[in-house]
Each structure stands twice: as structure tokens, then as C-alpha cells.
Amino acid sequence: MTNERLLPTPDGQYNIGHICTRLQCDRGHASKTAMRWIGAHGEQAEYTFGDLERESSRFANVMQSLGFVPGDVFFIFLPKMPEVFFAFLGALKSRLITGTLFSNFGEEALLDRLGDAEAKGILTRKSYLKKLLRIREKLPTLKCILLVDAAEHQAADILSLPALLREVSAEFETPLTPAETPSVLHYTSGSTGKPKGALHRHRSVLLQHRTAAEVLDLRPDDIFWCTADHGWVTGTSYGIIGPWSHGVTQVHFGGAYDAAKWFEILEQYGVTVWYTAPTALRMLMREEPALFARFNLAKLRHICSVGEPLNPEVIHWGRKVLGKDIYDTWFQTETGAIMITNRPGLPIKPGSMGTPLAGIEAAIVRDDGEELPDNEQGNLCLRPGWDSMFVSYFHHEDIYRQKFKHGWYMTGDTARRDSDGYYWFMGRSDDVINTAGHLVSPFEVESALLEVEGIAESGVIGAPDELLWEKVVAFVALKKGYAWNSDLELKLRLHISNRVSTTATPQEFRVLEHIPKNKSGKIMRRVLKAQYLGQDAGDVSTLDI
Amino acid sequence: MTTIEKLNGIFRTVFDNDEINIQPEMTANDVDGWDSLSHVNLILAIEQGFGIKFNQRELMTFKNVGDLLRSIESKLG
């Protein structure tokens, strides 16, 4: 399926960076506001599409001046700030493979991703430099680190971005970029092994553009706020690409979650379309109703949610408190754009994912490839071929191929379809933990726990949580001579937070004599989960311990 | 060592950053990595470091470093 008619590129120019900047200027939007920036301390700035074009072009020129060539891998490791957007679009203009990283990643998470991708460059800031320098020697392909907040170069390979920007032109002619050119790289966690880089191509803009209109209902005069971090696929597909491919004004906020501040932004900036996450909505539900009564959200027309299933209670709360439906949307890092969704014109069944977009073929499939009838639970699958489909797990083609079976892309989610064609999320077919919309690999956490003195074995599961959807729960077995105490718990927490990420930090620890494993040594997370939930563990005949 | 110096050491350990110099008016927006999840680590580390306990109600009132500092000092008497 193609959507060329929705995004005219008569010259065959598919470059995402070009489409979000220069094309908008060419369409007469150069002086239109592209971004209203609100910093953590309330500082504000406005950037027009003309500004976006110039700043991203300057960044593209910097990359060229440093010798980067198309296909080189470049990462952005920053909290949300204007430079993120300029660099992202500029790197794409240069046809670099552009990755974004969560700013709460620890050095181990960084090493896994930068090392696997053989990154050539990274943009960060001085306060994050320490993490990178600790792993610098293990990254032989990394030729430079750019700092957004250094006035002068720090070393031959640690460079000041402001100093580099001073030396280059604000004009850049984006080379004609065919649709299949690699574009965005997002790492995602699996239940085994290290995170994998889902590689996308510039063609993905077609479906991001289409869904921004059909699902997010974006119109030319909208003010759009996507609260997602750019480290997450939502933050790039819909916090950057989709809306700006339409020339829509976006609000971006650099501060942390704060209910009153968020509502102040919705009101003060006249946000008309809001895309957020169930965890954030559930946090808002815990606030006193009086808080919401202080704000006038008359301009807010449409609310969407993504990341975890949206429980019916949130939809009922939205109707009661905000006077609006909240539209749950479903997609994955690998799908690049919304696939199955609630959307305007489709009655909402609270708790359902909605229905597939026109042109997206979904099915519930048994492990042997047989399609299941309505109301039976099975693997949620998509027919390959949509425009924003990932084209590879970068450097892991074998694992990429394993995701396709019997002519379907296996999403890893399980679901059922009702007789009206609505899909209902049931769970994961693997052990990946979805906590507050972030996928956490139990393997990654288990490995990091074993690095702490005194830990002999570890097993990690996701357990249901009212706020986070799932919380990370760690089981540990101690080496002889070690005792469990609050000091050790704190040590483990800090180790995971600082080496992996705060998101991956277990919310709860349990100490066992041994971690259950099968005869080949595989951790039986199913048994741990049953034990945690007080359920029958089922067949345990293959357990070694 | 003063209370703020000791608290600063805990901040540096929790957020793995030797350059942190806390000030009373600082909030989560001023410290890299201070989010709702690492806040749990911070509170645990403070409780252990100072040998004190916070109750749920107190935790809800902390808006900045100064609030934390005052609460610690009141518990230390």
C-alpha cells in the first residue's frame, strides 16, 4: 500500500528532514510557528518553519563538515530541548541513520546501543559526558561527541556544537532521497539478548503523515502537543514527523510531569489536539477534581493515547472530567506508525484497541500459522508491506527474519478480535515488560543485577500495576555469606538506575534460595510470575531447581 | 559535616554525578535523572543515610531540595 497521493512529492523527494522544513516553507509556511517551546522553568521560545529549515540545515552542514556520509549512524542523547529537533531533522537531511536515546539511559544501556549500531557520532551535553567517557574505549567507531552546551571544543573528538554552527551556512540543499533510504533507528527491548535497533526508511513519512490526519485528526490550524519523549518511537513519528509533515504547530515542554503545569499548558497555549500516555492519564486521575475545574480547556478538541492499553476507567474519567473521548491507538517501534486504532468516526468500545486502519491487514493467528476466528485469543499479526514497516533489526538480519512467519509479521502481542472487528489486547507472547509505555527487557535487568556483589542468581518479571500497567519485579538469590538488607536493596536499585535506566529499576525485590530454571538453564519467568501472583505455575516437570 | 553536605553526597551517589551541588530552591528539573522513579531511590538513600523515616504524607509535600532539607533537620532534632 502506498500513500503518495496524501503527501505529494512530485520530484521523488522522500527526505523526512526536507519534508518537515523546506517543503513547508515552499508551501508558504516559512513564517508560521512550527514549535512553541516551553522550558522546564517556564522559559519560552517560538520557532517558525523558516527557523526549523535554517537550524536543521546548519546542523546538516556541520555533519558534512565533519566528514559524515550518508548511512553513517548518528545518535541524539539529550533531554527534550530545541536542539534535539534541529539535529534530528538536520541529520536526516544529511541522510544519516538517526537514532534517539532516552536521557535516563545509563552507561550499559548506552554501550549496548552505540556499540551495536557502530555509531559514528553522538550529540549530548556536558553533564552526560561522564557516562560516555566511561565507555568511550569500547566504542572504536565513534569518531566524535558533540556537546550542545560547550562554548569551545574540549578535545579533538569532543566538540562544541555552537562553535561548529558558527562556521557553517544556514542553507543546505537536501539531496534527492529515494523512499527506501534508511532514516530513523530506534532500539527496542526483547525478552532475550540485547536490545535490537529497528531501522526505518524515509518512506515511513507517508504513513506517519496519513495517520496524523486520520487518527490524530490534525488540521492546518491545530495546536498539537505530543508529550512523548523523542527516545520513544511516538516522540519521533508523532512528536516530530507526522505533524510537521502537515505544517502543524506543535507545543513541546521540557519539564517533568506536573498535573497543574500540564493543564496550564493545555489552556494557555490553546492546545487543540493532545497525544499522551495511559500512565500520565492515570496519574491525572489521582488528582483532586478541583484542579481541573481551574482550567478552561474549551479549545481542546481531540485526545489520543498510546503506549499501554487504555483501561475503560480512563475513558470514563475523560468523558466526565474533560468532556472528551480519549482515543486509544496501538503501534510499535517496528511498525513506525499507528496500525490498529480508535479514531474519529469509529464508535469507541472502552478497553478496545479499535480496528485496523484501511489498508492494514491484521489477524489473530495460532502458533502454527492458522488464522483464528473471532473471539479467540492468539498472536496479533500484521500482513507485511505497510509504508512505515521497519526494514531490519540493524546488524541482526537473522532476528529480523524470525519476526516473520507464515506470511505475517508477528507483533509479539496477543489479542482477540470481536465480531465487530475490534481488537482487544490480551498480553505479550514473550516476557517483555511494558512499564509506563516503556518496554523493558528482563534479560537486561537480570544481567545487570548479577554484576552486584553478593547476587548469585536473578530473575525478572513484569507484574500488574494500577498506575504503570506493569511494574518490574526482581527475584534474587544471594551468594553464601550475604544477607538481604536495605543497604543491598539500595545498592541494586542504584546500580540498575545508573547502569541501565530508571525505567528498568525494579519496584519490588523478592529473595529466593534459588531462581527456578529448566534443565538447559533458562530462567523460568513463568514460574516466578505465577509464584508472585499466587497462581498455579502449571507444568513444572522440566524445572531443574 | 553539615546536613546539606551530607545530603549533597547522597544526591551525588544516587544520580551518579560528582558535579551536583544542591541548593534549597533546586527541583527535579535541575538535576539530570531526577524523575519519579529515581525519586524512590533518593528517598530510600536519605532514609538510610540519616537513619530516619518519612511517612507518605511528608513525601507528598516535598517540592524542592529545601523542603527535603527542612524535613531531615526536623527529624534529626
Question: What would you say this structure looks like, in words?
Answer:
The complex is a heterodimer of chains A (545) and B (77). Chain A has 17 helices and 27 strands. Chain A is α/β, with parallel strands linked by helices and 545 residues long. In chain A, a hairpin with a 7-residue loop joins β8 (182-188) and β9 (196-201). In chain A, α3 crosses α4 (82-93), α5 crosses α6 and α8 (205-214) packs across α9. The radius of gyration of chain A is 23 Å and the shape is globular. The N and C termini of chain A lie far apart (51 Å). The model of chain A is unreliable at 1-5 (pLDDT under 50). Chain B is mainly alpha-helical and 77 residues long. In chain B, α1 (3-14) crosses α2. Chain B is globular and about 30 Å long. The mean pLDDT of chain B is 92. Chain A binds chain B through residues 40-41, 79, 103-104, 106, 127-128, 130-131, 255-257, 486-487, 489-490, 493-494, 497-498, 502-503, 505, 507, and chain B through 13-19, 28-30, 32-38, 40-41, 44-45, 48.
Question: Notable features of this structure?
Answer:
heterodimer; A: 545 residues; alpha/beta; Rossmann fold; GMP Synthetase, Chain A, domain 3; 2 domains; 9-stranded mixed sheet; 8-stranded mixed sheet; 27 strands; 30% helix; 24% strand; globular; disordered N terminus; B: 77 residues; mainly alpha; Non-ribosomal Peptide Synthetase Peptidyl Carrier Protein, Chain A; 4 helices; 0% strand
Q: What's the CATH class label of chain B?
A: Mainly Alpha
Give the domain tally of chain A.
Answer: 2
- Quickly count the helices of chain B: 4
Q: Any idea what the shape of chain B is? A: globular
Reported for the largest beta sheet of chain B, the result is:
none
Overall 3D form of chain A: globular
The percentage helix of chain B is: 55-70%
Write down the Rg of chain A.
Answer: 23 Å
- What is the strand content of chain B? under 5%
Show unreliable segments of chain B.
none
Structural class designation of chain A: alpha/beta
- Unreliable parts of chain A: 1-5
CATH topology of chain B: Non-ribosomal Peptide Synthetase Peptidyl Carrier Protein, Chain A
| The CATH C-level class name of the largest domain in chain A | Alpha Beta
CATH architecture descriptor text of chain B:
Orthogonal Bundle
Give the N-terminus to C-terminus distance of chain A in angstroms: 51 Å
